[in-house]
What we know:
Order of helices and strands: HHHH
Distance between the termini: 27 Å
Strand content: under 5%
Number of helices: 4
Largest sheet: none
Helix content: over 70%
Number of strands: 0
Amino acid sequence: MAYNKKNRYCRIIDIQNITLQYQAQGVTNEFIFKNYISPVYHISRDCFYGYLATNAKLKLKQLEEAEKQQPSLF
């Protein structure tokens, strides 16, 4: 489980990049999940497909822009 939203989106981007890398070689998503994602990230199949459907790069960019606009408390 991610510590905060920023870490979660970075994790999703990592998983998406791994998936794209192996899809380019012609490997199925099921094979990618069983052999590369599940042993490392310990997520379920439903979570994996949810991560693939998430536009994490956009959400991470929006989150970072919101952090820049918000004044720091410390």
